[in-house]
């Protein structure tokens, strides 16, 4: 029997619909798992329509169409239309390297409400090097222009790390110039491909402090003009973040093959059988599956989390990070200074002082 959670959780706020792992880019920090799903394993349009219908019935408010690159899927416009017809707020998370004005206009007509566009740098050569695709930067800027022409709200996601962090001021200025309403300066989080490339991506403390000062200055200068979100790297913190607002509390991810997970990296956790939308309803998955209940609440926690005053703020941190660093998903997230495994994080930071190795690019094996 799955563990009982009392009181039962609220319905999920958002569904992350990972339509595919296919993508023109080869980013070395991709949040997709290292073992990528092939096109032959992907859910059909009919499957996704059923998932969207069940999500709306469950109480989901937002659906984020993601990947890989969701614009690889020919059914994307139809799925956005289905989400809109169900009253779901739809957001497109894209690399901006496929399609242009015609495709964006079709998505807007279908009911798309928002576009989130990623950039690897403001310097074209380095952006293309990080993305592993020549010409990617130029395609992205044209895509941003196409989004702005439709009137859709645009968020730029500037993924930052050791090899582009000094250009944070220029990234914020580019977001303003491209007409974005929001920019997210998002430090790489070290799971999946990013964990493989951690030594090449993890910034030094000085880099982080300089970037933080630049963000704060820009927030003052552009207040009321551009919203600037700032996601710092876990490894430089003293306390863990509330990963996905807590395990199984607000977010539900469905992978291209139909596996339902509480976060991007959860499939790496051993001993948990994550359910599939092919055989289970979203309601059963959310409320009754063992996997979604395993780390909900605080009863699962060991010390020092169990007696910590922040246990219902950070919810013990990230289970996937605990597994990656400490080898046990039930341990305190090692980024916490109170964790007995915190020395593993300090060792990784010392490693970042060395010359960065070459990237291992995201590829299908």
Give the secondary structure arrangement, pairings included:
Blueprint: E1 14-18, H1 45-58, E2 62-66, H2 76-85, E3 89-94, H3 101-110, E4 114-119, H4 124-131, H5 136-150, E5 154-160, H6 168-177, E6 182-187, H7 192-196, H8 198-201, H9 205-221, E7 227-231, E8 251-254, E9 260-261, H10 282-288, H11 290-293, H12 319-326, H13 342-351
Parallel strand pairs: 1-2, 1-8, 2-3, 3-4, 4-5, 5-6, 6-7
Antiparallel strand pairs: 8-9
Question: Could you provide a short overview of the structure?
Answer:
The protein has 365 residues and is an alpha/beta fold. The protein is built from 13 helices and nine strands.
Describe the structure.
The protein is 33% helix and 13% strand. It is an alpha/beta fold and 365 residues long. It has helices at residues 45-58, 76-85, 101-110, 124-131, 136-150, 168-177, 192-196, 198-201, 205-221, 282-288, 290-293, 319-326, 342-351, and strands at 14-18, 62-66, 89-94, 114-119, 154-160, 182-187, 227-231, 251-254, 260-261. The chain contains 13 helices and 9 strands. It starts with 13 loop residues before the first strand and ends in a 14-residue tail after the last helix. A hairpin with a 5-residue loop joins strand 8 and strand 9. Helix 2 packs parallel to helix 3 (101-110) and helix 3 (101-110) crosses helix 5 (136-150).
How are the strands of the largest sheet arranged? 7-6-5-4-3-2-1-8-9
The radius of gyration is 20 Å
Please count the beta strands (DSSP E, at least 2 residues each).
Answer: 9
**Strand residue content:** 5-15%
The parts where pLDDT drops under 50 for at least 5 residues are: none
Figure out the total of helices.
13
Amount of helix: 25-40%
C-alpha end-to-end distance: 37 Å
The ordered H/E elements are EHEHEHEHHEHEHHHEEEHHHH
Mean pLDDT: 94
Major pleated sheet: 9 strands, mixed
Mass-distribution shape: globular
Structural class: alpha/beta
Oligomeric organization of the protein chains = single chain
